[in-house]
Design goal:
Length: about 300
């Protein structure tokens, strides 16, 4: 698939709060070498995450399974959209091996959307959870999954594997779905999160959204209320950054004070874990958020 053409406009000037110092190399070379050795992908690389340098330097990464090509064409995402290769049956064990050798204390696994597979890739995610449990029985596992096309059996199978955190991102406000993620559906994404709770009572669920795409503050607060209504425990809110000229433009660099307002609104709604700041991403400091949700003060 190819992305729709996006009209060229001058880039918005990056405000001071969006500028970060370069990270020291740390363990970056070690992490890159290990990923290459085991043939693994990370969302850090594929999605051009702005926190990649910091995370790799500290010896962490978010694994991305089921390939590097997504069957959808969301206009905010840097992951390639194309016909994917068949799943690699050795990938779950390799993810577990990498996590063990990296000494991760909290493992995050995400996936590309695989609408081409009968179960959307759910069995592969379950196999990855199982491999991690075998290799690292005391290490929490967090999965960030697609909507599986709304397939209740697929959602239930992943929830029944009892990851420590089940994450599915809502991404944006309902009004913007048509332009931001046209192949997704807001109500369906809410149902994914609700279904996971129903399939595995007590399961910690998590979701996240981007701002700076043209949403109103009241719309963001309405999304937060919708997420709490389906029992979501942890929420992340971060600034959208345009990966390339072929993607949606940033309409606004949201000021830190607005992120603080969103955080306060989320806490007032009862979320047990909240991260809201410009550079927040779904898996950024995931261990600390999960710890807070498991042990609320």
């Amino acid at each position: 698939m190819t992305r729709p053409e996006v009209a060229a406009h001058p880039a918005k000037r990056m405000p001071g709060w969006m500028r970060r110092p370069l990270s020291a190399p740390g363990r970056s070379a070690e992490v890159n070498a290990l990923l290459d050795e085991l043939g693994l992908s990370t969302v850090c690389r594929s999605a051009k995450c702005p926190n990649r340098g910091e995370c790799y330097a500290s010896g962490t990464a978010t694994f991305m399974v089921l390939g590097t090509e997504c069957t959808r064409n969301c206009r905010f995402c840097a992951v390639d959209s194309a016909r994917p290769a068949p799943p690699d049956p050795g990938e779950p064990v390799n993810v577990a091996e990498a996590a063990k050798r990296m000494g991760l204390r909290h493992v995050v696994v995400t996936m590309v959307t695989r609408d081409d597979l009968p179960d959307g890739g759910a069995a592969h995610v379950v196999a990855t959870i199982a491999a991690l449990r075998d290799a690292l029985p005391d290490t929490p596992v967090e999965v960030l999954v697609s909507d599986f096309g709304g397939d209740a059996a697929a959602i239930g199978s992943v929830a029944a594997a009892r990851p420590d955190v089940f994450n599915h991102n809502i991404e944006t406000v309902p009004r913007l779905y048509g332009s931001v993620r046209p192949q997704a559906d807001y109500a369906r994404s809410l149902r994914v999160l609700e279904s996971a709770k129903e399939a595995a009572p007590g399961l910690v669920t998590k979701s996240g959204l981007m701002v700076g795409l043209g949403e109103e503050q009241a719309e963001v607060e309405s999304v937060l209320a919708d997420l709490r209504a389906v029992g979501v425990d942890i929420v992340t809110i971060g600034q959208y950054l345009r990966p390339s000229a072929a993607h949606l433009e940033v309409t606004e660099f949201v000021e830190p004070a607005v992120f603080e307002r969103y955080a306060a609104a989320a806490r007032a709604l009862g979320f047990s874990g909240v991260a809201s700041a410009p550079f927040v991403r779904s898996s950024y400091h995931a261990a600390e958020l999960a710890d807070g949700a498991a042990n609320p003060s």
